[in-house]
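Why do we bother with holo predictions? Because pocket geometry can differ from the apo form. Keep that in mind while you read this record for zinc ion.
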Amino acid sequence: MSSPPAKDDGPCLPEMQDIWNLLRFEAQEGRIWLDEERVVLLRSNELRGLRRELIDALGMQRAKGLLTRMGYISGKMDAERARRLRPDASLFDVFSVGPQSHMVTGQVKVIPQKLDWNEQENYFHAIFDWENSFEAEIFLSEFGAGFEPVCWAQLGYASGFTTQFMGRQIYFKETCCTACGHETCRIEGRLVEDWEDAEEAFRHYQPDRIADQLFELQEQMAELRSRVDAEEHFGQLIGSSPRFLEVRDLLSRAARSKVTVLLLGETGVGKDMFARALHEASDRADKPFVAVNCAAIPRDLIEAELFGVERGAFTGAEKTRAGRFERADTGTLFLDEVGELSLHAQAALLRVLQEGELERVGGSEVKTVDVRLIAATNEDLDEAVREGRFRQDLLYRLNVYSTTVPPLRERIEDLPDLISHFLDKYGTLHGKTGLSVTDRAMTLLREYDWPGNIRELANVIERGVILTDPGGQIEAAHLFPGFRGQQDEEGDAPEQRPLSELVAGAIDAGHPLEAVEQQLIDAAMARSGNKVSGAARLLGLTRAQLDYRLKKRQDAENS
Ligand SMILES: [Zn+2]
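The structure, written out:
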């Protein structure tokens, strides 16, 4: 459309005194103006520091986006001034207000190389060379030569100015930059649709919602942290069997909410450990965790224990005391054996769950508490409801989120981990390290039914630890006092006859107990090649125990 005046290779910029005249210094007033717009003189050192901080804080790409958009805005403002400033000039000269404003403000020297546009044909193509780019200069002095052009704000200015001036989306790219070691910086502008990689190349012109992203990331962090916390706390519970993991997962999901949790399962399965882990993984972790075993407190005292008591409420109530609920305020209360509560106590518990209110025994003041309740029972509460021992409405309240902790026999694959945990624990406690369990003992542990579950396992292992020397192996007889070995180590024993049959046979034959024991010991000694330790293992005895028996027998024979 317009054919700009050319000088040598490219079009030549017009006189720019008019722009220079826009600059007014009001030193007495502390102001500088560019036309109607207030400007400030910034030292390049300040900008260098700012750029460094931006890059450090946000990374190269975000800093680039920020500075590019800053330049874009000021380019757009200068474009609005251009036509007003040179109303009668050629289109090229009006356009030149952009590059020349850049020059007057001391940012860069612009040398047009090519400016080719056609509004009808929707065409725009421009090439400018930049000399003395201040951005390249401060980048070089701060970071040294890089691989990417760095004249971000200036480039944003060119894009903003041209886009506003032409009324079309026009973006510039910097194809050479002195900060990359080129002799001069060079920029090239085209209609956005003419850039094949526009979407990628100009993404940083889009405002970057850093704050939103930070908030989002923060939320994700909190979420992750809570999951890690849950993982960590529940990780203290030992086990990797599917049944165990299922329960652990279910509970870790409930941890962050205030939902009342009901833990079911046989006695000794570790409901208390799960309750503790649930608390530790909740946002109440730094608040009190109060555990009450309802079965361990006399029925007529349980209400005073849970809800507190006013002085003189009954004989023995000599001073006013806060109950466990009040002590657990803002934290978690774990009510074990909840099926043991009296009906009266159940009514009071229901009130706390429904209203968050309680009254101390013998008091009339209503107190409010914020307590997360975890209840546990090994009882069938439905059955208790049918028998009139447990309130149906309370069961509904408790049963919101319930799960059954599996008995040990249903997660027997966790046994090795549990055993090694208890070996460590009781080994440390009793000053014995390096303990292990014989294969035979392990087989027995696996075959056992564990009616007392993990608590029983803990007791059994502790017993074994006490009976075994440091660094030794815990034998079957250490674990189960009544155990008598029936199989030999190789497992090639003839077909087993039930013990009862053998016993019946011995009685029928009139063998006295002593003779039976004698024979057993003799057989074991023979089978182990007269080695006492081997025979003791076969018999499920310690060496000391067998020694004692052998000696007794020898004494008897000698007397
Ligand atoms: Zn550059």
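Residues 216 and 296 are 48 Å apart (CA to CA).
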